[in-house]
Amino acid sequence: xxxxxxxxxxxxxxxxxxxxxxxxxxxxxxxxxxxxxxxxxxxxxxxxxxxxxxxxxxxxxxxxxxxxxxxxxxxxxxxxxxxxxxxxxxxxxxxxxxxxxxxxxxxxxxxxxxxxxxxxxxxxxxxxxxxxxxxxxxxxxxxxxxxxxxxxxxxxxxxxxxxxxxxxxxxxxxxxxxxxxxxxxxxxxxxxxxxxxxxxxxxxxxxxxxxxxxxxxxxxxxxxxxxxxxxxxxxxxxxxxxxxxxxxxxxxxxxxxxxxxxxxxxxxxxxxxxxxxxxxxxxxxxxxxxxxxxxxxxxxxxxxxxxxxxxxxxxxxxxxxxxxxxxxxxxxxxxxxxxxxxxxxxxxxxxxxxxxxxxxxxxxxxxxxxxxxxxxxxxxxxxxxxxxxxxxxxxxxxxxxxxxxxxxxxxxxxxxxxxxxxxxxxxxxxxxxxxxxxxxxxxxxxxxxxxxxxxxxxxxxxxxxxxxxxxxxxxxxxxxxxxxxxxxxxxxxxxxxxxxxxxxxxxxxxxxxxxxxxxxxxxxxxxxxxxxxxxxxxxxxxxxxxxxxxxxxxxxxxxxxxxxxxxxxxxxxxxxxxxxxxxxxxxxxxxxxxxxxxxxxxxxxxxxxxxxxxxxxxxxxxxxxxxxxxxxxxxxxxxxxxxxxxxxxxxxxxxxxxxxxxxxxxxxxxxxxxxxxxxxxxxxxxxxxxxxxxxxxxxxxxxxxxxxxxxxxxxxxxxxxxxxxxxxxxxxxxxxxxxxxxxxxxxxxxxxxxxxxxxxxxxxxxxxxxxxxxxxxxxxxxxxxxxxxxxxxxxxxxxxxxxxxxxxxxxxxx
Length: 814
Ligand SMILES: Nc1ncnc2c1ncn2[C@@H]1O[C@H](COP(=O)(O)OP(=O)(O)OP(=O)(O)O)[C@@H](O)[C@H]1O
Fold this sequence. Notes:
By secondary structure, the protein is α+β, with helices and mostly antiparallel strands.
C-alpha cells in the first residue's frame, strides 16, 4: 500500500496538491473512456445490403436489365440505393442520439486534495488522487484501497458475477488474477455497502473496464420489442407479396402476355407493395422520441422504455425531492413541553437569535452534532451542502446561536433501512436522531401526541436523544438502549408546484399515482392531501424490500408500473418495475444503473413529460404505419388487378417504382416528425397487449387501398387522349390521393407550422410530379406525357374526394 502511495507521489491522508492534479489532468487527459466507435460509416452502409428484401430487389434489377429494360432496372437500383442511404443516415442519427444521452448523465466522485474533500466530475480524476467511496457510488477509476469500512462491491459490470465482493486493503500476491485482487476497486463497479478510500492507479482507457471496452467496442443496438415485432411482420409481408407477384406473372404469361413484360410487372408489384421504409421510420421515430425526452430532462437508458412509457398505467413515486422540493426548514422544536417556533424559510442561518429555553437548546445541539451537512453562502444565497434534512437542523441550531459541537469520535451512519443516526463525541456522549418510532425504541418514551400533531401538518418530524457510551465500548444499537429523550424538530418541505400540476395531469391521462415514502404516515397523508391523492394511494414507512413487493403486487393486478427510486436498496424494485426511474441529481449510481430512465432534475413533472412523449412516439409510429400500409398495398394491387382482369395497366411498372421511390421518403417519413398531440394526455393509456394491427386499422388499410386503386383505374379510363396521357393522369391521381391521405393521417389538432417537414415533403412531391409530367427527358424515361388544366382538376377533385371519404368513414386510426 505504501508502495502505491509512493509510486503515485501522493499522500494517503491529504491526497494530491490541487496544482499537481491539474498538471496531471493536462498531461494524461480526462478520466473517460474514448467515444464508442461503432462500425465505420462504409461498413454500416454495406450492412444495409444484408437485408433479404434488398437481395430480392437486386436480383430483380439484374433480371429486368437482362430482359432489355434498362430504365426499369435503373429505377429498381435507385429504389435500393435510396432506401439503403436513408436507412444508413437514420441509423447513424439514432445511434448518435443515444450516444449523446450517455454524456448527459455525468458521474461525480468525492476526492481529497490538499487535505479537503470535494465532489468533482469523475472525468477530472487523475492517478494519485485520493477518492472517498460511499454506499451507492460507482467506482470512478481503478483504485488501490487504503482504508475500508465493511466495503462491498458489485463487480458484475466487469466480471459478470453479481454477488457483491468484500474488499479490504490487505496486500495480496501480485500474481493473483485481476478478479481476485480484493485490495482493488475497479472503475464502473458499484459500491453496494460500506465505504472506504483508495488511491487512483489508472484512469480512462487504462482501467480494467477500459480494456474490456476496447475489446468489445461495439455500439448499442437500437432494437426494441416493437422493432422486432415489426421486422417479423415485414418479413412475413415480404414473402406473401413475393408469392403474389410470382402468381401474377404466371397468370399473365398463361394468358399470353410476353414474359419480359410480366417479369417487370411482377417486380414492380413486389417493390411497390413491400413497405421498405418501415424499419427506417421506426428507428427515426424512436430516436426523435428519445431526443425529445432528453430535452425535457428524462434520459432514457434502455430504448424499449420509450415504448413501455406510453402504456404506463401506474406511477409509484417517492415523496421527498420528487413531489416535494426537498428544501427543508425547521418550523418548530418541541422539548420538555416547550413549543419553540422557528422563523424564516430557506437555509439562511442569519437573523436575530431568539433566546431558546435550555431543553430546546440541547435538542438543537443534538441536531447540529449528529449531522454531516452544512450550509454555505454562494453568490449571495444560502445553500445546503449535503442532506437537506440535516442542513435544516444546522440552520435551526445556528438561528439559536448554537455553533460549536464536541469533536466526533465515531458514528452509526443514517440509512433508509436504519432510519436513525448516532454520533459519538469526545468523552463518550452520543447524540441520536431519527424517525420517532426508532428513537422511542431506545428511549422508551417520546412525545407521541406532539409528533402526531406536527406530522398531521405535513411536517417531517425527527426525534432526538442523548446517551453515554464510553469510548472503549463498541458503538452498536444495543448499547444505545436507555438513551434519554431530548425532543422533536419538525420541518417543512414545500410541494413542487410543477409536481402538483403533473399529478393532476397524470390522473386525467388515466394513470394512477401512488406515493411511496419512508416518512411517517401522518406526514405522508398530509402531503398527499395537497396533491389530491386519496389515503389508499399513500404507502408510508415503506422499506426498499417492500417497494419490490409493491411493484410485484401491482404488476400482478395487470398494471404497467413506473417506479422512482434513488437508493442502493431501491435497485431491485427499479429493475423489476416496467419503467425504473432513477433520480439524476439525488440518486445513487447503483439506482441509475438499475433504471430504465434517469430524471436529470429529479422532478415528478418529468415522469409525466416522459409518459407524454412515449405516447407521442406511439402515435407517430402508428401514423406512419397507417399511412404506409395502404399506399404500398395499392401500388401492388394496381398491377395485380390489371393482370388478373387482363386489362391495360393504368400505371406502368416503372411508374409504380417511381411513385414508390419518391413518396415513401418525401411524404411518409415526415410523419415521424409530427409534434405531440395536445390531447395525448387526455386519453387512457393504450393496453400493452394491443396488437399492431387492430381491426379498425385493417379496415382503414383496405378502404384506402381500394380508393387508391379505384381512383387510378377511373382516371385512366376517363382521361382520354393517348395512353401515355391517360397513364400520366392516373399517376398524378395516385400521388395526389397519397398526399390527401397524408393529411388524413396527421394528428388532428396539431398545427401545420409545428412540423415544417410535412409541407416541405408535399412541396417536393409536387415538384417531382411536375417534372415527371412536363420534363421531356422524364416523359421519355417514364412513358409520361404533359397533361392539361382540366386533367389537373380531375386530379385535385379525386384526391379531395378520397380525403373526404376517409374523413367521413371516420375509421379511427387506432
Ligand atoms: N439524515 C437523517 N438522519 C436521521 N434520520 C433521518 C434522516 N433523514 C431521514 N430520517 C428519518 O428517516 C425516515 C425515512 O427517511 P428516508 O430518507 O428513507 O425517506 P424519505 O426521504 O422521507 O422518503 P422518500 O424519499 O421515500 O419520500 C424519515 O422519515 C426520518 O424520520
